[in-house]
C-alpha cells in the first residue's frame, strides 16, 4: 500500500501490505511489489523450500538481489554461486539467471529493478492463493 503525501516525492511501501503474486511455474516464488517509481522499483520475493525460478532475464532492467534469509543457488550459464543471508548480487541487463532455494525453509529476497520495467511482468502474474 502506498501513501500519498501530496507534493512529497517519496513513495512508501511496507512488506505484507501489498498483493502477493505467484510465478507461473511449478515451485516458483511469490512476489510482492513494495514500491514502484519512474526509475526504480523494489519487490519482496519468497522462494519455497526446494523451489525456484528457471533461467530468465529481466528485460531492460538491471537487477539487484539481496538475500534476507535462507540459502539460494544462483546460476548463470555454467557458473553457480550459493548466496546466504546478507549476500548481494547485481545482475546486468540481459543476463540470464536461474534461482533455487537450497534450504528446507523459505528464502526471502529483496529485488530492486532499474529501470522498473520488469515489475510490469511481475504485476501480470496471478494473485497467490
TrEMBL record:
Residues 44-113 form the Cupin type-2 domain. This is Cupin type-2 domain-containing protein. It comes from Rubrobacter xylanophilus.
Amino acid at each position: 500500500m502506498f501513501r500519498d503525501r501530496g507534493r512529497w516525492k517519496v513513495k512508501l511501501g511496507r512488506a505484507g501490505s501489498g498483493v502477493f503474486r505467484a510465478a507461473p511455474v511449478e515451485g516458483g516464488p511469490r512476489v510482492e511489489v513494495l514500491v514502484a517509481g519512474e526509475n526504480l522499483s523494489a519487490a519482496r520475493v519468497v522462494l519455497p523450500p526446494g523451489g525456484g525460478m528457471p533461467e530468465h532475464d529481466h528485460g531492460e532492467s538491471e537487477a539487484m538481489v539481496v538475500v534476507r534469509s535462507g540459502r539460494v543457488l544462483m546460476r548463470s550459464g555454467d557458473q553457480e554461486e550459493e548466496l546466504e543471508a546478507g549476500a548481494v548480487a547485481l545482475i546486468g541487463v540481459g543476463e540470464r539467471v536461474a534461482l533455487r532455494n537450497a534450504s528446507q525453509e523459505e528464502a526471502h529476497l529483496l529485488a530492486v529493478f532499474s529501470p522498473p520495467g520488469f515489475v510490469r511482468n511481475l504485476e501480470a502474474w496471478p494473485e497467490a492463493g
